[in-house]
Amino acid sequence: MASETKSSLTLVNDASVGTVAWSDAAFASATNDLYATFTGGNSVVSNYLKLTNFSFSIPSGDMIDGIEVKIERKGSIASRLLDNIVRLVVGDTIQGDDNATGTNYPTGDTIATYGSSSDLWGLSLSDTDVNASDFGMVISSKRTSGGGTNTASIDHITITVYHSSIDTSPKTLGAGAGGNIPGPDANWILESGITASDNSYASLGVLLAADEQTDYLEASLFGFNLPVDAVVNGIEVSFETSKQDSSPDFIDSSVYIRKDRVNVGTEKTPSNLFSSTSDDTVILGSSSDLWGTTWTYSDINDIGFGAAIRAIRDSAGGTNVPKVDYISITVYFDGAVQRRIFTIT
């Protein structure tokens, strides 16, 4: 996890809460014993001290993991001043959880921390949100009991954004599951052959005669771990396949994507999946192909997400056997890619 800490370049009083304005708001831009101040009597609440324009430069596509605010502040008298509201500003709108504390301001400069590396303040934030000039935070302070007036002083405020890059390199999964989906046609056997590109094949226990077809061979348990804010843009399925004999041919295949262990969306019917006696790799789908259905991150992460394939013989005489050596799925989301390889242990 990486982090970036910045100070505000735009500090103003915002009168949308409270009754007393902050003086010298711009002084809270650096730790230099020059202060933004609010002075009030018993039970008086300040306006917001609003800070934006932090000039963050979080890399595009990174996930925002947490927001931490540090406020260096003090009160003129002990046990008389404390937070009223501490919230974030996103898109120039004050929003999210109020992380104000019930701790009184000490009489000497002390840094108080709000949020953490895993606290998103009840919001879903993107790199675009925090990089924008209208991202920031607000604080409103309040006077508690006691006579006379007291002054709250803020010397410096920083925001730290914690972020993580999404790994776009291929990832290989070391476990999975495969099997024959029971039906009226020829059963797949040796499903554990779909472990890697190693010439160990899922195949059939019988020979396919003219116009016969197989049951569906299912691949599942891919083990994706997309983030909760992922938007799925496309899915590719890669098959490494062959046929036992050069003839007769397989005229067609049926391929589905699977959601919760059910065939869904648009059927694909490639004619070249079982066209050679040596292994060929055929890729179906693309970075923008959703296979005729909609997807959430939880659909992809589910153990029942996967693919299914069926082979269909032509009408010529003789028999033949289809073979599947290897299956992988690539999911494209939010401009990044995770690749999971189907294997069986």
Could you please describe the fold and organization of this structure?
- This protein is mainly beta.
- It folds into two domains: 2-164, Jelly Rolls, CATH 2.60.120; 177-342, Jelly Rolls, CATH 2.60.120.
- Helix content is 3%, strand content 44%.
- It is built from two helices and 21 strands.
- The chain has helices spanning 127-131, 297-301, and strands at residues 2-7, 10-14, 36-40, 48-52, 63-75, 81-90, 93-95, 110-115, 136-143, 150-164, 177-181, 188-189, 203-204, 216-220, 232-243, 250-259, 262-268, 280-285, 306-313, 322-333, 336-342.
- The strands form five sheets. Strands 1, 3, 5, 8 and 10 form a five-stranded antiparallel β-sheet that branches. Strands 2-4-9-6-7 form a five-stranded antiparallel β-sheet, with no helix packed on it. The chain has a five-stranded antiparallel β-sheet with strand order 11-14-19-16-17, with no helix packed on it.
- It is rod-shaped and about 105 Å long.
- The two termini are 32 Å apart.
- The model is unreliable at 168-176 and 335-345 (pLDDT under 50).
| Portion of residues within helices | under 10%
* Percent of sequence in beta strands: 35-45%
Give the rounded overall mean pLDDT: 89
Enumerate how many helices there are, as a single number.
2
Q: State the total count of DSSP E strands.
A: 21
Rough outline: rod-shaped
State the CATH topology of the largest domain: Jelly Rolls
